[in-house]
Design goal:
This protein is of the alpha/beta class. It is built from 12 helices and 16 strands.
Amino acid sequence: MRYIVLLIALFFPVFGFSQEWEDQQTFGSSDQAPLRILSSTDTSFFAPIIEDFIASYSNIAVEYVVTGTADIDRIFRATPEQFDVVISSAMDLQLKLTNDGFAVPVLDVEHPDWAQWGDSLFAFTSEPAAIVINRHALSDLPTPSSRQDLIELMRKHPHRFQGRVGTYDVRQSGLGYLFATQDARASETYWRLMEVMGRMDAQLYCCSGQMIDDLREGDLLLAYNVLGSYARNQAEISDELMVILPSDFPITMMRTVLVSANATNPEHAESFVRHLLALQTAADPLTFPLPPLSGFDDNIAQRTINLNPALMTYLDQMKRDAFISEWENAIVQDK
C-alpha cells in the first residue's frame, strides 16, 4: 500500500477552523497539491479504490478525510473550496448540496439515469439498513425477521433487552435521519418500534461502526437500522453477529459522490469520479469492496430510496423539527 497514515484526531489547520476527523490519510506522493476527498465512508473500504486510481494516474496524491454525514454537510457548506470530492451515505443532504449549486457536472458518464441527478450527483452503491443481533446474547430467543417480530420479542422479554438495544441518534446522524424518515414514510410500524425501543432504554449512536463494536462486545443485544454493508463485513469475520434484512421492507440507500464546484483540482476530481464509477460497474471486490448498484442481495426485494427532489422533503426545517420532536417523544422519553 502506498499511503502514509497520518495522525488521527488532530486538528486540520488548512481549513481555518478546528475539526477533529474520524480518520485522515494520504495516499501516494506528488509535487502537486493532493486531491482532497471528504467522506463518510470508512477508509478501509476506500483504500483499495484510491490505490487503484493512483496506479492509473501517475503523480497524483489523494488526501482522504472521514467524518460523520451531518458534519460533512456542515463543513463542506462552510468551506467548499477546501475539498475536491465529497462522498456521503446521506443521499438527501448530498442532493440538497447539488441542488444548491455546490456540485459541478461530470458530463458523458455512462451511468443509469435513476442513479444520478443533474449529471452532478452519482450513486455508486446499494446498501440496506439492517437489524443486527449478537447471536450469542440472543441465545434461546427466536430470531426476528421483521419489525413486528422485533416489537413482539422486546415486549415479551423486556428484562433481556433493557439497555441493550441500539439505533442512530437521528438528531446527530445524517444517515440515521435519512433512514428514519424513509422508514416512517413506509409504515406506522416504525413509530411503534421506536416507542418499544424507548421503553427498553435504547442506546443512541452517531454511526454504525460504534453500534457494531458494542454488539461484538456484548454491550448490545441488537441494533436497528445499522448500515448493512458495514455489518456484513464484520459478520464475515465475527461469528457473534447476525445480519437480518427486514422481511417486510428493507430500506436501501445509495452512497453518492459529487465534484465540488469550487474544487482546487477539478480535472483530477472528475477523473476520480469516472474511475470510481467504472470500478463500481466492474464490481471486483479486490478494488471495490462495497456493494455495487446491482444490489446488496439480489434474492431479496429491496426498497431503494429514490434519488429525486422528494428526498429533500424532510430537510425542510419545519418538517425536520416536527419529525425530531415526534422521534424524541417516542424513543427518548424520560432520558
